[in-house]
Amino acid sequence: MNRDKDARVREIVRYAYENAPGFRRLMESAGLTPDDVQGVDDLERVPVLSKDKLVELQRQDPPFGGFLAVPLSQLKHIFLSPGPLYEPHGPDEGWVEGAAEVFRAAGFGPGDVVVNTFAYHLVPAGLHLDAALQAVGCTVVPAGVGNTDLQVMILRDLQVTGYVGTPSFLMTLLKKAEEKGLNVREDLALKHTLFTAEPYPPSLRRTFEEEYGLRTTQAYGTADLGLVAYECEAVSGLHISDAVVLEIVDPATGKRQPPGEAGEIVVTNFSRTYPLIRFGTGDLSAITEEPCACGRPGPRLLGIMGRVGDAVKVRGMFVHPNQLRAVAARFPAVARLQAVVTRPEHRDELTLRVELGDPNADREALSQALATAVREVCRVRADHIAFVEPGTIPEDAKLIVDERTWE
């Protein structure tokens, strides 16, 4: 880390301490003042703020848990991410800078027409990436999710050159195009992509790059922070954005892990609207300091190795156990439920297994109502509702079971 980043850390810690009462309370609980954090190395003294803790703080001190550092009138957007978690965004957000850095590295720029398939509704991903694409000179088609027939038409008619979204949804679109008699290489102009929000296995990369001739790049980010790490052309880990400070820490202690050892990804941003200092993402990774063949300096993430907590990301959205509890609470006839995530043909599938307490319940009507409730509460569609015999789901079973493999 250079002196410039030390200075930025000093400045944002003091600013947050003076303007965000929730952060001030966090520092005081650890016996710290801004004078105790003079640079990047001193961040280790600050307690990690987990997403679950931030949700709790927002409940105690609504709506932003004391972490809003500007008057409400200065906000441009307020998003709602799973948790639930309110996320205020103002005019100073560093995520545009960070995401623009990622798009440039992925080859996006002036002249590109790009479909952005992330949601624009409530969650920040769609608008986040839209602004960054515009910042690097792209023309954006705000496609959002779903509507595969319409999106294939857009790809063809507008001769779209870039795609932003999950790899599984792009595969869905390309297969749909082929069903319609299109040759992806000849009839479409698609040339490069940026994937995030779900793993990108080597087998799927080979399909996109060898069969379809695409240049593909993956990036890592969260709804709270935006994009914070990205692949280069060497495909040797994920470079960490200059817009943040990223640490790998022991989830139990918050202390930094040495290079090569797995730990939780903890990120500090420099937002003067909503400063998140040592925000625990819940994702596990490790860092390498070996030089990259591309010549870019600095450490790199060695992929995402899993989750610290029990939340599971399905088609780009985290599903939390407490969301499933909220679903179950709506239906007295449901004795127990469990979500099972699988991945046939490189696409996440969510199956809701249901035990009934009332054997006379109308299963067809209940199935439709459960599907609607899952979509409303979790913002992910359940692919299957499976009624199982009482006793099939053990009392101590996890509410979410992840059975996916990535090869």
Describe this structure in words.
The protein has 407 residues and is α/β, with parallel strands linked by helices. 30% of the residues lie in helices and 24% in strands. It has a nine-stranded mixed sheet with strand order 5-4-6-7-8-9-10-15-14, with helices on both faces. Strands 1, 11, 12, 13 and 16 form a five-stranded mixed sheet that branches. A four-stranded mixed sheet has the order 21-20-19-22, with helices on one face. Helix 6 crosses helix 7 (167-179). The longest helix has 17 residues, at 3-19. The model has no long low-confidence stretch (mean pLDDT 94).
List keywords for this structure.
single chain; 407 residues; alpha/beta; Rossmann fold; GMP Synthetase, Chain A, domain 3; nine-stranded mixed sheet; five-stranded mixed sheet
Short description:
By secondary structure, the protein is an alpha/beta fold.
CATH class of the largest domain: Alpha Beta
> What is the rounded distance between the termini?
35 Å
Q: Number of helical segments?
A: 11
Radius of gyration: 22 Å
Q: Going by CATH, what is the homologous superfamily of the largest domain?
A: ANL, N-terminal domain
Q: Which stretches are low in confidence, meaning pLDDT under 50 for 5 or more residues running? A: none
Average pLDDT works out at: 94
How many distinct folded domains?
3
Give a count of the beta strands, DSSP E runs of length 2 or more: 22
Main sheet: strands, sense, barrel: 9 strands, mixed
Percentage of helical residues? 25-40%
CATH fold name of the largest domain: Rossmann fold
